[in-house]
Hints:
By secondary structure, the chain is of the alpha/beta class. Among the domains are: 1-142, Leucine-rich repeat, LRR (right-handed beta-alpha superhelix) (Alpha-Beta Horseshoe); 778-958, Rossmann fold, CATH 3.40.50.10140. Helix content is 20%, strand content 14%. It contains 17 helices and 45 strands. The strands form 8 sheets. It has a 17-stranded parallel beta sheet, with no helix packed on it. The protein has a 12-stranded mixed beta sheet with strand order 1-2-3-5-7-8-9-10-11-12-13-14, with no helix packed on it. Helix 16 (901-909) links the parallel strand 44 and strand 45. Helix 9 crosses helix 15. Belongs to the Toll-like receptor family.
Amino acid sequence: MSALCHGYLSASLVLGAVQLIAGYSFNNCIADSDSSGTHFSCIRRREKNISAIVDDLPSSVTNLTIAINPVWLIPNNSFAHLPILKFLRIDHNHLRNIGPSAFQNLHQLQFLNLSYNNVSKLSRDVFKDLHNLTFLSLTNNKLKQLPVGIFSTTLTLNTLIMRQNLLMDFSGIVESVSHLPNLKTLDLCYNHLTSLSHNASLPASLSVLYLCRNNLFTLGCKPSFLGFIEVLDLSYNARLPTAAFHGVDLKHVKYLRLRSTNVEVMELFNISNIRTDAVDFSGTGLKNDSQLTELCSLLKRKANPIQNLSLSSNGIKKMTNDTFSLCPTITGSLDLSLNELESTSCLLFLSPQMQIRRFNAEHNQLNALPSCHAQNKIPFLEELSYRYNHILSVKSMAFVNTPNITLLQLNINKIAFFHHQALRGLQMLHTLRLDNNLLTELLNDTFQDNSNLQYLNLRNNRIAVIFNGTFLRLGNLTTLDLGGNKITHFQPSGLQGLTSLAKFYLDGNNLLQIDASFHHVFHDALTVLDLKGNQICFLNEKVNPPFTNLSNLRDLKLDAQRPHGLGTLPPAFFRGLYSLKNLYLTNNYLSQFAPDAFNDLTNLTFLSLDSCCKGVAKLEAGVFRKLRKLTKLSAENVGIEDFSAEVFGNLTHLRMLELNYNVMRSMDVNVLLSLKKLRYLDIRNVPLSCTCQNSLLQNWTRQNPNVQVVYLYNQPCPHDTKVKFYNFDTKVCFIDLGEYLFFSTAVVIFLFTLTPILYVKLYWKLKYSFYVFRSWFSEQWRRMREEEENCTFDAFISYNSCDEEWVMDHLVPNLEGNGSGFKLCLHHRDFELGRFIVDNIVSAVYNSRKTVCVVSRNFLQSEWCSLEIQLASYRLFDEHRDVLLLVFLEPISERQLSSYHRMRKVMLKKTYLQWPSPDCMNPVQAQELFWDQLRRAMRAGSRLQTEGEHYKCDDCDSV
């Protein structure tokens, strides 16, 4: 046992750890949504371990029900963490063993129900901590005896029920309860007691003692043993004789039940001090007139008047007018149920002097109620019941001699014929039950005299049509039940006169439409209308609103229309129902909802849509936008696949949301957050994907302290039922947003700072590198590298088109003519047509021994010229080849050249020439010197000069 308890303790620790990190949800229990976390139900779970059921419950629990589970053991301290528990049910389980300290720390417990289990033995200390216990039920177990002192500390116990066990020792039971000063009710029915012999005394507070269905053959008790008992049930102890009561003090008994015993009641009065009006004569064998007459004589001698006379289950077949003639006045009821009466003869055996107010003839063999005569009135009778007979017909004037009846029960018979004057004379009738019969019609004068009728039940008959004027005189009727009939329609004035009707039940009929009579009959009195299970269907949206006159209607049931549901909800269908609180639309296979279907239901608090739709439900945006007072929405098995704000976002007062068996793959957490008053969410059997799409939802369900998510820990992942939704791995779904934002911001700032610098300093270097890289792999590039020493041209002339006139008029004639013999490459003349410009430039630079750049202000502004000088300077600096010559056509200051870092670097390293200005004193000689120096530079080899030199005409006279 210690190892077993250790296992339970380990399990409880694990579950406790789960609860620490989890939100408002429980493994095997559901909190009552209206109890603020104090009432819990743990029903129909498959858990055998009581710790797994209760360990995750909060300490605030006051009411707890654990029922219909395979639990077989309650270990010690199972409820120690629930110190304020007051109501505990552990019934209808497989309970066999209860630890001696199972209920330790439950000092506030008042109600404990352990019925319908398999407990065969209890420890002496099992109830030791239950100092405030007032009610204890051990019904239907296998207890054979009680340990001595088991109730020693439960001094507040008021009711103790131990029926349906195997108890045999009555003395031990008495000894266990003898010290209980507050015990009032002790139920020991259905046990194996054979005698009431005892060694102790029953507590003086005990007033109700049930000992029915035991094996008592004697009482065997002291004369004063039952001196304080007021209700004593000894029925169905077949061997109990009359002599057992000899000398026993029964003077305080107010009700004694002796059905199916061997006690002769007449003799009982001779040997005991029992009051005659305290004995229930049901099942005592008084079945003929002589016995009943003798009883009446005895009763009249002993007590006059008496309150009730019960003669049920005596086999009485016939009553005569003189049967009760000698009886004393009976001011309460006469019960003749469960006999064999075939006729009541208009109740002529009830003489007026008897003053009976209630007469019960249920469960007899009556087959008809004949016509009666008004002269034989029974003025005091107010309640009459003929239920559970075989009555086929009720003739006219059947109750004319009982004019003061207020309650008449004729239900559960076989009445097929009900005379239209059968109820004549019953002007005081308030309640009439004709349900569960075979009635097919009601005529317009059936209720002619029943103007005070308030409740009329005609359920489960075969009525097909309500004729004109049927209820015309029932202006005080508040409840009319016509459910379970075959009604197809009402005649135009069939409901006329029901001006006070508040509750109207028409469920289970064959109505094809909602009758127009609803518009003008009820005058805003109707509060409940039940149309469940009819044949109402709307195939199009052109329907006049049928409820416009029912402004006070509170409950409307339209669920389960046969055979294929309502079809559609037309626009403005609920117009006029401004007071409606509860609406039922379940099992209707609706194909669509009009977007304004619920717009008039501004006071609706409960809406049931369970199984209302076909396939996947398409709930229009805003369909619930007017339901701002809705507190409970039941939408199970509707086919909802999109939990969106457009549909659910306006339900700001919603407390309970049931979405069991829908098809959402995800739920928007923002929508749930907008439901500020939500306290109960049922998403069982919803295939929520265990992916990053639901990572926020998982976090919400685990950390929300206000919303109970029903059985969250049992919610499986669709892809693997072994993985649960509440703890699937979401690590890959989250990053450190702070760190991410910091580094992202730093990179952006760095790039914004560095980009302008790189643009100014490296733009052309990068662009040139790109072009070189692209050309590197071309066959032309490789060919040029191989044939570099065998150049096609002596010089490639790089110039801007604005300087073309100088090039053609001066440069070309002086280098290609005048005996110079240089071969020049000019872009407008020598570039290959159809080829990329970049490829032509690269080819020209590497197919020429020199590159002559004709520099001017226009040259500096040209991108192509800049690329050309970059390519040439690459050969100059990177390949160490003297291939670049600079010719300045005009003076350019160093400030203007400051942006051209590469060109200034060339000017510092390499010879450059300045075209003489026209203002020179000897321009001709200066130009001759210029051409001579340029020719000499072009003929020079490719060895790079280490020291820069330049030729510039600063003083033309010196040339």
